[in-house]
Amino acid sequence: MPTPNKQGLLTIGEVAGRTGLAVSAIRYYDDEGLVSARRTPGGKRMFLRSDIRRLSFILIAQQLGFSLEEIRTQLRQLPLERTPNKRDWEKISRGFRAHLDARIGMLERLRDRLDGCIGCGCLSLDACKLYNPDDRARQTGTGPRLVVQKSTDEASG
Known about the structure:
The chain is mainly α. Helix content is 53%, strand content 4%. It has seven helices and three strands, in the order βααββααααα. It has a three-stranded antiparallel sheet with strand order 1-3-2. The longest helix is centred in the middle third of the chain and has 35 residues, at 86-120.
């Protein structure tokens, strides 16, 4: 168990021990402004106990596939000087829900279309008579639009 100093601050090693993050990762997140270490006169980084929650949130959000910029945007909503409460986390949860729902939808479309492609046997979206008859997708641009974007049938249905 970490032993906070007189100001209630934890060393970077103590925070690493609590979060499971490498010290170098914590330094990186501090340099990126995702957490805000206090510095001793000797330059040693010291952290508030609330930074344990912020760092844990960063770790979980990254595992869910969120970019550091998306995480930074959400963290701006959290208080810096206290441990976030339930209301704070609910606010962030609402912000992430839309992103997660969009990703889930994309993965479901990918799964469903992949099943169709494997069942068809052509294994080519260029030649596929089901998803791209007469290579119509070429007219709308490049990239995996048939998988990433909703089809017009899905959007209108």
